[in-house]
Structure formats: structure tokens, C-alpha cells
């Protein structure tokens, strides 16, 4: 009987073999979400790319990406996002871009943002964003390099 695996061991083994998590309901660890799996504190990711900037979405228009829930200000924005979520979702799962450049994961303020080369970057707050804007391209290179290592590590809680 000692060679028999428990159900949880079998699920863990199956998940490992499939390269997936058996906690299917929660957002992926590499996504910054609140306790309800809501991304960007409810802000509409598509609005950042229009001349609108940060606009609070509504639960009337939602889409899911990487098990995170995004709210939108309109059905048009939701449909645009659904057609190409990679184009609109914030980089680094919505974690602070400057933090990722420094090898850390921090939550963000949706009002501390920048679209650079067609990608949305969020920062912890306006003061961190000021530093990010001093050398954005170099920080993006550092963050891209660091992200592969830290994306599945727990975020820091401030």
C-alpha cells in the first residue's frame, strides 16, 4: 500500500506534468489582482491607449485574461481587449515596472502609468514613476530580463 499515492499527490503530479496549477479558480501568480481577482483596481486597460488615459471600468463590461478579471468602460473596449489581450494588458502582470526592473514585485497605482512602444507600464506610485521615467528604455530591458525569474514569486506587501 505504501506505493499508492494520495489524491492530492496525484493532482500535484498531474498538474506538474501538465505544466499547470490545480488551483484553477485563482488568478495566475504572475498577475497583480485584488482578493476578487480584479486587475488594475478596476481600471479599463484599453482606455490607457486612447487619449482618455486611466478610466475606471464597470462590472457591466468584463473580460478574463490569465484568470484575472478586467473591467471596461464600454463594450467596445471590452471587445477590443478580448480580440487581443496581449496588446492591452499591462506588462509584468500589472506589477510595478520599476520594481520588476529592480528584481521585486510590488502592487501599482493605476494613475502612475505610461504607454511606451505600444505597451502599458504601471508603477507603484507617482514618485516611483518619476524615477522610471528617467531611463525608461534601460529599465524595460532590466525588467524584461528579471521578469522570467520573479514572475512566479510572491509579491511584496507594503
TrEMBL record:
Keywords: Signal
Pfam families noted in UniProt: YHS
Signal peptide: 1-26
Residue span, YHS domain: 46-92
Protein name: YHS domain-containing protein
Species the sequence originates in: Vibrio coralliirubri
Organismal lineage: Bacteria, Pseudomonadati, Pseudomonadota, Gammaproteobacteria, Vibrionales
